[in-house]
Amino acid sequence: MATGLTGYDLLAEACPTRQVVYRLGDKWTLLVLYALSQHPHRFRELQRAVEGISQRMLTQTLRGLERDGLVDRAVAPTTPPQVTYSLTALGISLSDVVVRVRVWAYENIERIEIARHSYDAAADSDMQ
User: Is 66 helix (H, G, I), strand (E, B) or coil?
Assistant: First the structure.
């Protein structure tokens, strides 16, 4: 049994770790967290920073991150209102993990590409 720090079975559906894994496993979450770790962003600025994200997906991602207490949404009383997104202290602590994943990716991308090439070559030869 794989138990976590609090005695939960890490692989069990009821394990709290799954909530965090689901949040981080989202296609855009890590990228938005990384962008916000650089500095606070307004919505359009963040959308330009995270290439390929749609307005709808950015809105959903930010709402989820805000709900989880990772992102703060500040509305300035201007016309039109200026909304700025930034990381909370909790978000900053998680962004440290994101930076480590980025470093790991840079250090290992060549090995991953070699493994992919080998796998694809073997799959191609199996199909013939």
Answer: helix
Over 80: is that where the pLDDT of 126 sits?
no
The structure tokens listed for 126 are: 């199996």
Per-residue pLDDT band for 25 (boundaries 50, 70, 90) equals: confident
Phi, psi of 75 (to 5 degrees): -110, 120
CA distance 4 to 68: 21
24: left (phi over 0), alpha (psi -120 to 50) or beta: alpha
Q: Where are the alpha helices (DSSP H) in the chain?
A: 17-25, 29-38, 43-49, 55-67, 89-127
Q: What is the pLDDT of residues 104-120, one digit of tens each?
A: 999 999 999 999 999 99
Task: Tell me how far apart the alpha carbons of residues 15 and 66 are, in angstroms, rounded to a whole number.
Answer: 22
Name the token pair of 85. 């997104």
Helix, coil or strand: residue 26? coil
